[in-house]
Design goal:
- The protein folds into two domains: 111 residues, Immunoglobulin-like (Sandwich); 351 residues, Glycosyltransferase.
- Strand 6 and strand 7 form a beta hairpin.
- Strands 3, 4, 6, 7 and 8 form a five-stranded antiparallel β-sheet that branches.
- The protein has 15 helices and twelve strands.
- The relative contact order is 0.12.
- The chain is globular, with a radius of gyration of 24 Å.
- The protein is of the alpha+beta class and 551 residues long.
């Protein structure tokens, strides 16, 4: 390490200690802890219990030089438990360097302004999927596991058990495997690769992208779940997984009694088919025609099954992922089949499905309408209008609060929803070349990296303040950091209290908790602090976009 680097590191450490020592406990400056690109809209949020009217903030370089000053915004008033909120906007300043924001005797954490900030984040998020691997798939941090999946098939007496449905990804901190979340996660990973293949090179020497190696873990398992043309399993194991205590997956006492469930619905079939159709397009582009053909065959068969299948029902093995509406899933499936085959029949059917319902102003594994509209937009102008309508709604809500939060209340999985909204904003920019919603995407990015009420980055080991005690059995029992974990995000205190969770550790975010938003860095909090494959996949797509123009 050179003397210059050592000095720079020491200066940053001194600034952190300085900020901690002199900060007024009633005033906080929340910044993007990874940093801002030179051409970004660059904003920090200042929180105070006392009014700070008519004050200026200062952007201070690591050598204590004030390089930029400006007035605070007007007071946004009370929000998320604090009486006063102000925005410090320094978008005009674009010189690379390491900085803090200073207001009176309060300093922010240090952050860089630089063009190259996000390149490592997609890889970090991708590593989480290695930890989630099940079966003989070379998992990270644990041994091969659940090698008897599945010992029986619930809902199909015609097939002798057991049936090989080993592999795939555990859904979250538990060891259940869900078809609908695996389909969504595979889809988002494939979309990230399709948009930015240069970000995911081959590092294993097998002539295939690391991301595509990973996504095949999910796709291969999905193919096993589709074990006959008119049969589709939707889940391996159930809520009993939560009743036996914390254990490593290879030591799971339930290994020899895990069941798979046959309960295909329109929604399940649509999500499966969309992921498989996109996979066929992606693998064909890289010359893996045989694998692409397999994916396309599964996509077509399950799409046909979905068109005639029953709607989703809540009487299945578990209700954690209950998707009652299916028009969005089938619209996305038909669109991806059109893009994979160039058959106008599928585009016609996509249009027909999309006209059955109005846009749903939400984005998640169960709300795929925005992605369907974005993929149809170049061929169907009405879809672009619907996408714009969705984003206009989110943007309007974001404009009403200092953080740019695009919904009215925090619900379970809020961070993943914010990443989904950011993804739609970025896709809109790609389609239209209009930057109307880019600030919305940047706000969501900055929020999950620290510009939030608690000043916490939602990605493990990214930023200065981040989750250390995820609700994740492998990480806890191995006493290791969870690579690329992405927390669920804030919820209202009402939701948190409903579940009666007892925290294990002293709450380090206690001064920031409110009725509007709580977050706990505690392994017992499975509502705000559990990583999921869906959240990680959506965040990976978003950060891939921000990393794409970096060296």
């Amino acid at each position: 390490m050179t003397i210059k680097i050592i000095i720079k590191v020491l200066i940053i450490i001194i600034y952190i200690l300085f900020a901690a020592a002199i900060s007024n406990s009633e005033t906080y400056i929340q910044v993007n802890q990874v940093g801002y690109k030179p051409d970004d809209r660059k904003q920090a949020v200042i929180i105070s219990q006392e009014p700070l009217a008519d004050l200026s903030f200062h952007l201070v370089k690591s050598d204590t030089e004030v390089v930029y000053s400006s007035n605070l915004s007007d007071d946004w008033g009370a929000f998320i438990g604090k009486a006063h909120h102000y925005i410090a906007d320094f978008s005009e300043y674009n010189q690379p360097g390491t900085y803090v924001i200073r207001l009176l005797n309060t300093c922010s954490l240090p952050f860089p302004i630089d063009q190259n900030l996000y390149r490592t984040i997609p890889d970090t998020l991708l590593r989480f999927f290695q930890v989630q691997r099940c079966g003989e798939t070379s998992p990270l941090l644990h041994k091969p596991c659940h090698l008897l999946d599945a010992q029986r098939i619930e809902g199909d007496l015609s097939i002798p058990s057991p049936l090989d449905v080993t592999g795939g990804w555990h859904d979250a901190g538990d060891y259940i495997k869900f078809l609908i979340t695996t389909s969504y996660s595979a889809y988002m990973l494939l979309l990230a690769y399709d948009k930015h293949p240069e970000l995911f090179p081959d590092r294993d020497g097998n002539n295939r992208s690391d991301l595509l190696d990973e996504v095949k873990i999910g796709l291969d398992w999905m193919m096993k779940m589709h074990y006959a043309p008119d049969r589709l399993l939707i889940q391996v194991h159930d809520h009993k997984d939560h009743d036996v205590g914390w254990r490593l997956p290879e030591d799971d006492p339930l290994t020899d009694c895990r069941a798979a469930y046959l309960l295909p619905s329109k929604a399940q079939c649509g999500s499966f088919s969309a992921a498989m159709a996109l996979a066929s397009s992606v693998f064909r582009k890289i010359g893996e025609d045989q694998y692409a053909d397999r994916c396309l065959q599964h996509a077509r068969q399950v799409y046909c099954l979905g068109v005639t299948a029953i709607p989703e029902v809540s009487t299945g093995p578990d209700s954690m992922y209950f998707d009652q509406t299916a028009w969005d899933n089938l619209t996305l499936a038909a669109t991806e089949l059109f893009l994979a085959t160039d058959s106008s029949r599928y585009l016609d059917e996509a249009v027909q499905f999309s006209q059955e319902e109005k846009p749903v102003f939400w984005v998640s594994w169960g709300d795929l309408g925005g992605f369907a509209y974005s993929r149809m937009a170049s061929y169907h102008p009405e879809s672009l209008e619907k996408l714009d309508l969705m984003l206009s709604w989110f943007d309007s809500l974001a404009s009403r609060n200092p953080y740019g939060i695009p919904f009215e209340t925090f619900t379970w999985g809020s961070a993943s929803v914010q990443m989904g909204i950011a993804a739609l904003a970025l896709l809109h920019y790609e389609i239209t070349e209009s930057d109307r919603y880019l600030p919305l995407a940047i706000q969501q990015r900055d929020f999950v990296l620290g510009v939030n009420s608690h000043g916490v980055s939602m990605i493990g080991k990214i930023g200065w303040v981040y989750p250390k005690y995820f609700h994740h059995q492998v990480a806890y029992l191995r006493e290791m950091s969870l690579p690329g974990g992405f927390a669920e995000g804030f919820v209202s205190n009402e939701i948190f209290q409903h579940y009666g969770i007892q925290l294990e550790k002293l709450d380090r975010f206690a001064p920031f908790q409110s009725e509007d938003a709580v977050y706990h860095d505690d392994r017992m909090d499975y509502i705000t602090n559990e990583p999921t494959i869906c959240g990680n996949a959506t965040a990976l797509f978003v950060f891939s976009w921000f990393a794409a123009d970096e060296k």
